[in-house]
Amino acid sequence: MSAKVITNEQFHLVVEVIMRFSTQPLRDRLFIELTFLCGLRANEVAHLELRDVTDATGQLDNVLQVNRRGAKNGRARPFPMPDILRAHLRDHLDHDGWQAGPIFWSQRGKPATSDSVQASLKRWYVLAGLPNCSSHSGRRSFTTAAARTAQSFGASLKDVQKLVGHASLATTELYIDSSPQADALARGLWGPAPQMSWAEAQPAPKIVQHLSQRRPGTIRPSPPRIRAFRKFGRKGLGGDGLC
Questions:
Q1: pLDDT tens digits along 125-135
Q2: Contact 19/31 with Cβ under 8 angstroms?
Q3: How many CB atoms lie within 10 A of CB 149?
Q4: How buried is 1 (Cβ within 10 angstroms: 0-12 exposed, 13-18 middle, 19+ buried)?
Q5: Contact yes or no for 102/111 (Cβ under 8 A)
Q6: Which residue(s) pair with 54 in the sheet?
Q7: Number of Cβ atoms within 10 Å of the Cβ of 124
Q8: What's the pLDDT tens digit per position in 114-162?
Q9: Handedness of CA 177, 183, 185, 186 (dihedral sign)
Q10: 86: Cβ–Cβ under 8 A, 6 or more apart, which residues?
């Protein structure tokens, strides 16, 4: 079963739950922000290191680097950080320290793993009343939202593929959830039907007269069928008279 897509309101609800109940709120908030705002996989989140988010001077960069250790099939890629994510990342590093190496750690002092990121996100989704969501929900939500709005930014689906690190554009398309506007698109594509008066909508008088003279339930066979029946008889039409 594919991961469920969440709305922006549901995302903020999960963040609120995290900030109220988590023992590591700054870390756990980044877990969901990195998946929802950046489309990262759980393994990519777990393997982020300080050098992936800082520049040559050691200052927080505007771009994070998804490293080869975390990326699927080793396909590293850059991702421009949203301002809110950059601010929250700074809060986390100020709290936990700017030491080289992994950014995220457990309370027992061990580096985060893909499993621990997935378990953490699943817990917060459940507590927020979204039990069918998983760690991949944020990534799929990002891909869907980016695909729907790419054109308004002068971008394309190819750009979305690059941001999420898919090798194939077909894979990116599989991530995109159908739009709730699909029905409106289907109904409104060609505009409203032309208005027609009652008189214009009535069949021609000759057709009305012809139909009124036919007995109910009778269907006149076509001329070829009549000729075949006369030539071969009922059995020649397949035994039951049907062609």
A1: 999 999 999 99
A2: no
A3: 11
A4: exposed
A5: yes
A6: 60
A7: 21
A8: 999 999 999 999 999 999 999 999 999 988 888 888 888 888 878 888 8
A9: positive
A10: 60, 62
Q: Which residues pair with 60 in a beta bridge?
A: 54
Torsion, CA 183, CA 163, CA 10, CA 84, rounded to 10: -140
Whole-number Å distance between alpha carbons of 173 and 157: 8
SS3 (DSSP) at 102: strand
Confidence class for position 3, pLDDT limits 50, 70, 90: confident
Contact between 143 and 175 under an 8 Å Cβ cutoff? The reply is yes
| CA 116 – CA 28 distance, rounded (Å) | 11
Contact (CB, 8 A) for 147 and 18: no
Contacts of 109 (CB under 8 A, 6+ apart): none
Helix residue ranges per DSSP H, 97-168: 114-127, 135-149, 157-164
Domain annotation for the chain: domains and CATH numbers: 8-175 (1.10.443.10), 203-237 (no CATH)
Tokens 């750009």 appear where? Answer: 159
Query: In degrees rounded to 5, what are phi and psi of residue 65?
Result: -110, 120
For the CA atoms of 101, 103, 106, 107, what is the dihedral angle to 10 degrees?
Answer: 100
Rounded Cα gap, residues 85 and 33, in angstroms: 7
Distance CA(29)–CA(87), nearest Å, equals 12
**Residues 6+ positions from 74 with CB-CB distance below 8 Å:** 68
